[in-house]
Amino acid sequence: MYISQAFKGLHEWWRYIIGTLAIVIAVVVGQIPFTAAVFIKAVSNGDSIIGMNETDLLSLLESNLNLFLMLLSFAAGLLGVFLVVKYLHEQSITSLTTARARIDWKRFWFAFILWGLVSTSFIFLDYYSSPENYVLNFKPVPFVILCFIAIVLIPIQTSFEEYLFRGYLMQGLGVITKTKWIPLLTTSLVFGLLHIANPEVKQLGYVVMVYYIGTGLFLGIITLMDDGLELALGFHAANNLFTALLVTADWTAFQTHSVLKDTSLPEAAGFMDVFMPVFIVFPILLFIFSKKYKWNNWQHRLLGTVIEPSNDLTNSIKE
């Protein structure tokens, strides 16, 4: 039913190609401030950004400024998604978000608080079990600035990814292929592969891609089972926000003035990094969500056919 929300708007295949290109352009435009700032800083230092790797580029700017400028591209991307949906597809943002009459913010906050508590517990459990791997990184003024940036922009970043992958592309591929499993697997795979350039992959190895793709699959499943993005939006926002505020490392994508800094240099991802979240924690979360929201008919919701409603029904839905 969630994918079928796309039938409320204009849904020809070519619109999704144009829309995706427009969103990519919006992201590129949003990267201009970061690129300009890095270029100016490099020139002032007598350096050239040509040949610099991602770690070198990220080290040029103060971390709060770096985070702010990096996240601007996601804000531009989210604006691009909303404009494409509204004007190219003539579809409402509500129907892109959920099959319900209105967005259910209680679902968002339930997933946000639940995963915030779980992820925070994991971080401090690791801290207390391996204190030698951490140093206190807390500095009051930079941390307060980080809080302002993170609380405003990180949910925008995660919302962009959810609206693009579990929203726009999930609905688009669904109405084009008339399937649910193709958009579920495709968006999960693409979501994971787009993280391949992250410094975590270089540090921990390609096995960490299991985590990224598995996370995409988990978010896709809860979107289809719950007929909306609310749970995925809440989970993803909590995951990135609490991590950015609580812990950083020299080999992570987010370099922040967090409370703790992980000083370990793991050569490969371990069981706790990849396999426990994907194969133990995520299934437990699926069980919790399924009981709370009374999910049923899993096969149809995940593998069923997407059927276009009749013109009369579609028109009545729009009205």
From TrEMBL:
Record GO biological process: CAAX-box protein maturation; proteolysis
Residue ranges occupied by any CAAX prenyl protease 2/Lysostaphin resistance protein A-like domain in the UniProt entry: 144-242
UniProt key word Hydrolase: yes
InterPro entries documented for this protein: Rce1/LyrA-like_dom (IPR003675)
GO function terms (MF aspect): endopeptidase activity; metallopeptidase activity
Keywords: Hydrolase, Membrane, Metalloprotease, Protease, Transmembrane, Transmembrane helix
Transmembrane regions: 16-40, 67-88, 108-129, 141-160, 181-198, 204-224, 231-249, 269-289
Superkingdom per UniProt: Bacteria
The keyword Protease is annotated on this UniProt entry: yes
Entries under PANTHER family matching the protein: MEMBRANE-ASSOCIATED PROTEASE-RELATED, PROTEASE
Name of the featured protein: CPBP family intramembrane metalloprotease
